[in-house]
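[INFO] parsing input record for Ring-1,2-phenylacetyl-CoA epoxidase subunit PaaA
[DEBUG] input buffer:
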Amino acid sequence: MYAQLVKSEGTSREEMSPEEIAFQERIDRNEKIEPKEWMPEGYRKTLIRQIGQHAHSEIVGQLPEGNWITRAPTLERKQILLAKVQDEAGHGLYLYCAAETLGVSRDELLERLHSGDMKYSSIFNYPTLTWADMGAVGWLVDGAAIMNQVPLQRTSYGPYSRAMIRICKEESFHQRQGYAIMMKMANGTPAQKKMAQDALNRLWYPSLMMFGPSDKDSVHSAQSMAWKIKMNTNDELRQKFVDQTVPQAEYLGLTVPDPDLKWNEEKGGYDFTEPDWDEFYQVLKGNGPCNKERLGARVKAWEDGAWYREAMTAHAKKKAARRSAVAAE
Ligand code: ACO
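[DEBUG] output buffer:
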C-alpha cells in the first residue's frame, strides 16, 4: 500500500508528515473521511475541485434538456423529462452541500463557475438539436455519468460517497428513459430512425470525452486514486463504457460512428477511435459550440435571482433579531 503514498507535489513517503502517513493508512483501510476530521490540504482542495465541478455539471446539465420540455412529443414524455431535469437540480444541490462540508461556500463556488475559474462537464457545451437527442443524452450521457459515478459510491470522502449512492439510483432511471426514447425512434418511421442515428453520430465522441483526457494526459488521476477520491482511471472507465454501449447500439439497429470499432478477443473489449482531443481542450477553454450560451444562462439566472436572495437574507435577519429580542426579555 505504501506504493500509493504519493503526494501531488511528487514528494516521497519519507517527506510526508506523521499526520499524512496516518491519513493515507486510513484511506488504505477503506475508512471514510468525515468533514471535521484532519485531512491534507491537497485532499481538501482536490475534493472541492471535483465535487464543485460535478455539482456545476448537474446544474448546467439541466439546460440542454430543459430546452426540450415544452416540445416533448406527448404529455407523458413531458412529465418524464420534467422529472429528470428536476432530479438533476437535486443532484447539484446534494453535491453543493457535500462541497460546503469542506469549508467552501456555495456563493464562492458559483462565483468561480460564473467567472470561468471552475469547470463543468464538457458534454454540456454541445447543442440538443432534435427530440432524438433527448434519447441519446439519457442513453449516452447519463450512461457515461453512471459508469463514472457507480465507483464513486466507494469514494473515500463520506459526504461525497453518500451523495453518490442516491444520485446513482436516479441516474439509472435517467439512462433507461433515454434508451426507451431511442428504442421508440429506432423502431419508428425511417425519418425517426435517421434522427436517432444522427443523434448517436453527434453525441458519441462528446460522450467519450466525459471521462476526461487519456490517462497519459490526466493531471490528477495518480494522486486522486492514491487518495481514493477517484476509483478508476479515465481510460478504464471509457473502455467499460464502450464495451457496454456498443451492444446496446446494435440492439437498436444503429451504427456507432467509428469505422475502426472492432472487438478485440485478446483484451476482451473493443478497440475504438479516441475522441479528438484538440476539440476537447478547445471546449474546456470556452470555445465549444454552446459554452457562451450555457454560462450566459447561468449568470443571468444568478442575476435575476438577486432580489429573492436579498429578500430571504433580510427576512432571516429580521427573524434572528426578533428571536434575540424575545430571549433578552
Ligand atoms: N469536462 C470538463 N473538464 C474536464 C473533463 C470533462 N469531461 N474531463 C477532465 N476535465 C478537466 C479536469 O477537471 C482537469 O482540469 P482542472 O485541473 O482545471 O480541474 C483536467 O481536465 C485534467 O483532467 P484529469 O486530470 O483527468 O481530471 P480529474 O482527475 O478530475 O478527472 C473526471 C476528470 C473523470 C471528470 C473527474 O473529475 C470525475 O470523476 N468527476 C466526477 C464526475 C463528474 O464531474 N461528472 C460530471 C458528469 S455529468 C453529470 O454527472 C450530470
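[INFO] The longest helix spans residues 158-186.
[INFO] shutting down worker
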